[in-house]
Amino acid sequence: MNARTADKLATGMFWAGALTVIALLLFLIGYILYHGAKVIDWHFLTSPPTNIAAGGGIGPQIFNSFYLLVLSMLITVPIGLLAGIYMAEYAKNGPLVKIIRTCIETLASLPSIVVGLFGLIIFVNMTGWGYSILAGAFALSVINLPFIVRVTEESITGVQKEYKEGSLALGATKWQTIVKVLLPTAFPGLITGFVISAGRIFGEAAALLYTAGMSSPNLNFSRWLPTYPTSPFNPFRPGETLAVHIWKVNSESLIPDVRAVADGSAAVLIIVVLLFNILARWIGRRMQKRMG
Asked: What range(s) does the ABC transmembrane type-1 domain occupy (predicted)?
């Protein structure tokens, strides 16, 4: 086989692999949206499960998912950002750095169900919070923290060294260089990583089964004070998310028209995750052009 034939064969194999992945993804998305679009309407998106004869709406589940997302990102982003800055700018090759990297890689490879059991022991039982949105937020933070650290480290190390050297040569301190030069330059990559991390949180279910719970009180949206038991902003109440709701209705089959509710919930979840990924790429490109 000559070089030209080998090159064509390899190119064809690469194209075949890429097209197979694209076709599989389009089939899955199309199948879910086709069946779920028949169920989705305004009442389905805003009503609680007891208000629709077909089996219930997903209004509280959508709110719980976004509320859990916000709490988790408030915990994960500051810690991951500081840890990533340390790994990129302050850490020196040695035993301590090797231990930290090993811990990060181990956390990144843990199955979410294991993190859920860990959260059950630490955040649910030992803290006394019980099944709560706050416990679920901490469990999700454990899952996403390695990803945020890696994104921060790679975004900062990807900045050209001339920027850092020029800032230091002009008399700026190391911290001023990080805050005024490195972070603004790495901002597009950071934003993209944060948005993708948010999409992963929205679709997580296994870790939340043992931390946030599979039930939700009747939310009273006229009570905004977080200390009120049925307030939607109470972090110590249980909160069933959309992904957990899909698993629950399929496993228990206690409501009428289970298939319709599950299809509609899955379609909404797919749409939200797709929007997160599209938004991440759009923000990344826009910020890259603006910074450039």
From this structure: 62-280
